[in-house]
Amino acid sequence: MFLFTNFCSPRNISSTLPGTTILIKSLVTRFSSDTALSIKTEPELDKLYKKIEVEVRGNDPAVLKSYGIFSTTAAGHLGITVGRNSTPKKHTFERFTVLKSAFVHKKHRVQYEYRTYYRHLDFLRLTGSTANTLLEYLQRNLPEGVAMKVTKHEITNLLEAVSKPPQETVSK
């Protein structure tokens, strides 16, 4: 115990590590200058989204259905309104034919196909921070073999030229 307290005293640390006091001073000045800059700047306003559309694609409809239930449950826990959790009626599939052997036997062929299923999710009336939190959580828990496409509909102010009524000029 004596060795530990003797070694950890400030006198011994500064003697063994000569640059520590300089490092601490630079961190303190850096921190204080950053806080001074952050006080002078105006706070950044949070974005507002009317709707966020999430489209997930995969090759197994059961996985997409399960992920849709998971995402609506997660949105419910965050207090987010869910617009739709549906799948379109038609899925896409591509079929292609190749030869069985590389060089001969032209009559012997094999057909392959892969199907792509879709699911659409809509989240309504979100703030930017809530949207980022939700989308990060949903992307981290995305199952294997599933792709996600996100479309955000942001609410913005009208331009001043559009929002003000035109002024009539009277000519005499």
Could you list some keywords that capture this structure?
172 residues; Alpha-Beta Plaits; alpha+beta; five-stranded antiparallel β-sheet; disordered N terminus; 40% helix
Provide structural commentary.
This protein is α+β, with helices and mostly antiparallel strands and 172 residues long. It has two domains: 2-40, no CATH class; 48-155, Alpha-Beta Plaits, CATH 3.30.70. The protein has six helices and five strands; from the N terminus they run αααβαβββαβα. Strands 1, 2, 3, 4 and 5 form a five-stranded antiparallel sheet that branches. The model is unreliable at 1-10 and 16-36 (pLDDT under 50). Belongs to the universal ribosomal protein uS10 family. InterPro entries: Ribosomal_uS10_dom, Ribosomal_uS10_dom_sf, Ribosomal_uS10m. It is found in: Mitochondrion. Keywords: Mitochondrion, Ribonucleoprotein, Ribosomal protein.
Figure out the total of helices. 6
Order of SSEs? HHHEHEEEHEH
**How many structural domains does the protein architecture include?**
2
Instruction: State the helical fraction.
Output: 25-40%
CATH architecture of the largest domain: 2-Layer Sandwich
What's the CATH H-level superfamily name of the largest domain? Ribosomal protein S10
Instruction: State the CATH topology of the largest domain.
Output: Alpha-Beta Plaits
Profile the largest sheet. 5 strands, antiparallel
Structural class determined from secondary elements = alpha+beta
Low-confidence stretches: 1-10, 16-36
The total of beta strands comes to 5
The rounded Rg comes to: 30 Å
Cα end-to-end separation? 99 Å
